[in-house]
Amino acid sequence: MKLFSLPYLAYSQIITSMNPIEVICLSFCSKQSRERIKQIRFHVYYAVISTEIVEPKSPTLQLQFSPSSRYILIPFQLAPRWARCEGRRFTGIIDGVKHYFRSTDDEDDGTILYSDIKKCGFQISNYILDLVQGKLEKLRMDLHLIDDWKGFVAEPCLNSLSRIEILSKTVSSEKLSALFNNIENPRHVHIHYKVEGRVDPNSIIFRSDMLIIYETSWITREHLLGFNGKYLCFINPIFGIESIIEFIKQWKNGNNTKFAILKMAEVPQEFMNRDRFISEFDAKPWDPTKREKCYIYDKEITQDIVADLSEGLDFERDDGLLATIKIRPSRNVRRHRFQFFVWHKRFTTSE
Q: How many CB atoms lie within 10 A of CB 126?
């Protein structure tokens, strides 16, 4: 192939400027093409498997090299009837199996790639991720749409996941544990609905940097006290103020230097008892000489920029770490909010 007769810097720049579907097609031209491509360093901007991308819903890989480039979608299903006579056709061999592919243009700036072989979604996804030396970063899944559960949780590409969103209306604690046992370092975990059965408080779920629980009926005091991440968020928690006071006391009397933020929305009226927190922690109003007015979020944790804590209540730990409790009452009792912040950096500019 004439392309590879060019110097490495020349052909690598040409290939990295291609869209994913073009790189995949090129890799099927010959063994030499595939091996040369695997030597190139790609920047993978976005790599996610989600059940929320195509209809009918099924797991789908979305891969994109840059914000301005076309993306590729690989549904883990056969092409729907309307797509079987459209688009471009080509063949490719993956792990010794010959696939008859059909690619069609998405309505936006993407390409949808189908194979004629059933249940080959992970096989194709692993091939592409290995080809461009990319890692799967995000999973947004309704776990009820997984046919082969044992095969799914054993997939090697899941090990690299950093963000997981569980979208199932309900999920068993057994399935949840099986999934997270195969993930090395989940950083962001979102669980949208109810978990049925007991979840081990020592699960890696409670060691993720960010944990957001939208349905909290399964969360216990042990889960709360066992959290060992940075950012914890609950919607409509079922535990009361005593558990939160115990959580804050555990931080105050311990040596945890990792934890940063607890946020809770739709909390009961008892959380609005400002005097209770003043009494428990000898908390004081904001002192501008001790910290800034606004708390700046870690960009790696959340897209929020700042939180105004001028109305917060402050107290210090023995090692000098400062914490702020913020109570946000609302006329609508379902909108009461409670927040707890730890200041790892009190000022953004030198005094």
A: 17
* Beta-carbon contacts of residue 22 (< 8 Å; ≥ 6 apart): none
Burial code (b: 16+ CB inside 10 Å, e: under 16) for 44-59 equals: beebbbbbebbeebbb
CA nearest to 76, candidates 22, 147, 137: 147
Q: What is the largest CA-CA distance in the chain?
A: 77
pLDDT at 351: 44
CA–CA separation, 140 and 191 (whole Å): 10
Token digits for 213? Answer: 């629980």
pLDDT digits (tens, 9 = 90+) for 11-55: 999 999 999 999 999 999 999 999 999 999 999 999 999 999 988
How does strand 231-235 pair with strand 194-196?
unpaired
What are the start-end ranges of the E strands in 85-196? 88-94, 97-105, 110-115, 138-141, 163-166, 170-172, 188-191, 194-196
In whole angstroms, what is the distance from residue 133 CA to residue 130 CA?
5
List, in sequence order, every residue forming a beta bridge with 56; answer none if it has no partner: none
pTM of the model: 0.90
